[in-house]
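Progress report, Aim 2. The chain analyzed during this reporting quarter is listed below.
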Amino acid sequence: MKFSLVPAVFAIIISLAGSNKAINLHDESDAKSGEKIERSTPVTSQPSITLCVMSGQLTVHGWDKNEVRVRSTDAAQIEFRRVDKSKDPSTPPARVDVMVFDKMRSKGDCQALADVEMEVPLGATVQVQTRDGDIYIMGVAGAYAGSQNGDIVIERAGKFVEAGSVGGSISLKDST
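Predicted structure tokens for the chain:
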């Protein structure tokens, strides 16, 4: 298990946010105040998934479906942006950026203020970041996590972990 505190994780995740237009793969109406919004999309069994917000608790769980499901009561909208350039657009994506839009900002560039829950395939590699909040990641293949002011807890990561927190603790449990 590789474990290191790397502030560069922040730059990697921010750069992955990119400037490509987000595509809402499963369109639903925007969330009203206090209403839970949920989106899902099929992916490969070992995808790379990114998620970042300015402030909020991020919780990621691995599950036995080849699907990413994202939920939040704080977000106004959740969209998925396919990053891989497949020759066949009908195949599930191997790389997806999760774009979270809050009720105050219309841009999905890591500026949302929202708590987010996400389920990903057990073989997924996740890259998650929040500037102000805690991160919980459980049951994934690989995890990159960064928080400037919050705790990071990673459990049952099967291949690797890279985590950095400026003002919080980092806990690694039951990982190989």
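Confidence is low (pLDDT under 50) at residues 5-31. The chain has one helix and 13 strands. These observations will guide the mutagenesis work planned for the next reporting period.
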